[in-house]
Amino acid sequence: MKTFMYIMLLLLAIAILLPREVKSDYIEPTQPVEVVEIPSWVKPEFVENYLLVFDTFGKTAPVMIKIARAESHFDHLIKNPSSSARGIFQILKGTFADPRYGCTGDVLNAKDNVECARKIYEKDGTTPWNASKHVWGL
Would you say 129 and 71 are in contact if contact means Cβ atoms under 8 Å apart? Predict the structure, then answer.
């Protein structure tokens, strides 16, 4: 019986000491990872919205970041008291509902607003935001 116990302890020790394959969700990047520097003027509560705009617009992000800053400072809940403009890109209710753009969801939802702005930009460029161009077009 003692021999059996020694064998079992030896097998247990070997099992514990053998290297194991560690599974992880980490995936090695195949391309360099871009580090995004958050400007100091972005309020901490809107950093996620800033990154959403940055990620959504890719190469055109610089101008769209300027537009979003001019329109709302990345506040997704902001409403213009003088019009129906809402959200990060101050999209008018009529524009959001316009079938030409195919916007869906809620204009006050950050992702829906930015996605709608992307669709508007693809069709009309920056023209829909010309009212604030004196601020962002510098």
Answer: yes
